[in-house]
Amino acid sequence: MRRVVFNQKGGVGKSSIASNLAAISADRGLKTLLIDLDPQCNSTHYLLGRDTNTGERDIGVFFAQTLSFRGRGRRKLQDYTTPTPFTNLDVIPSNPELGDIMSQLETKHKIYKLRDGLESLRGYDAIYIDTPPAFNFYTMSALIAADSCLIPFDCDEFSRQALYTLIENVEETRADHNEELEVEGIVVNQFQPRASLPKRLVEELQEEGLPILDSFISSSVKMRESHDKGLPLVHMAPKHKLTEEFVTLFELLHPGFSVKPTTEDVEEKA
Question: Is residue 71 scored above 80 in pLDDT?
Fold first, then answer.
């Protein structure tokens, strides 16, 4: 399954959701890959640490090589994967310079290169793609390459208005480029059950028939602590309520999946 996590509004928890679902997937025994297409590199830093040197193994170098006419010597997408300290979990890191080559990639019509790269990729049971907070070349590349799309929603009116445009963009991409793409659901993030506004917004979206997933992710300082330590929640606080909410979301996306979590210790990051 190739799953893209996308919202063109920033600050809605894309990287947190993508990284934590990928970490749970790996912990459940699935060989998992996370691809970070966001030049902010949040998922990369979360899973590898801020000081990790990945050399020439990042998604920016992968896209840059497609601009060359020399086919010989080109590396496959597999060559850009980097193992994380967590069992079964690899990442293709992002690069802050992704924006510098975007116009060239658009001009040379390289929009299908990620899809083609994933077609040749072997050995992964699950792939998560984190995207930039914009509907641009990299987001379209991800939607074209994916089987499904998860949409984070952070319960405010601005997010609600952006949601309608986002769904239209996804539907248009499906019609024009990827008929197999489906909106898997809207993930309600940073939910405050005692506040009236979030509850009202969610109820209204449900009444409109939008695919709101039944598992909500609460607002919690534990997420910031997880970012600071560079440890996904399933490894930092496996019994915490927030972790359990992510596990419930994972199980909702994988009905009937019964592989037990691994018991191996996580290597401590340098």
Answer: no
CB neighbour class for 268 (10 Å; exposed up to 12, middle 13-18, buried from 19)? exposed
- 252: which 2 tokens? 């909702």
pLDDT at 198: 81
Q: How far apart are CA 235 and CA 243, in angstroms?
A: 9
Whole-Å CA distances, 27 to 82, 175, 232, 266, 270: 17, 35, 11, 10, 21
Tell me which residue of 171, 187, 173, 168 sits closest to 12, measured CA to CA.
Answer: 187
pTM surpassing 0.90?
A: yes
Token reading at 20: 């934590």
147's tokens:
């089987």
Number of H helices and E strands in the chain, helices first, is 11, 7
Of the candidates 254, 17, 39, 249, the residue with the CA atom closest to the CA atom of residue 125? 254
Structural domains for the chain: 2-253 (3.40.50.300)
The per-residue pLDDT for 261 is 57
d(CA 23, CA 90): 10
Three-state secondary-structure class, residue 15: helix
Given a cut of 80, whether residue 92 has pLDDT beyond it is yes
What mean pLDDT comes out for the span 151-171?
89
Query: Hey, what are 43's tokens?
Result: 């998922």
Rounded mean pLDDT of 121-139? 96
Helix (H), strand (E) at residue 5: strand 2-5
67: its two tokens: 């601009």
- What pLDDT, on the 0 to 100 scale, is given for residue 138? 97
